[in-house]
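Appendix B. Raw example, untouched.
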Amino acid sequence: MERSRHLVITVDANGVAWRKYSNDGGQCVEAAHLAGCVGVRDSTAPAAGHLVFPVDVWDAFSNAVKSGRYDFS
């Protein structure tokens, strides 16, 4: 069995400006620039916490989304 590695990063997100991204279906996420990384959270439940990604990983993912790579309709 292969073990996965998990990296836990603690970043203070208080006072950060979150930017909302949505599609026509009403499902929204918010993203914010945090100390050298990008935070992503559910816009309908912002108090539930956020995920943190290195900037290069977020850029690769967002470019793939923009290119239609994850369009399954």
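End of appendix B.
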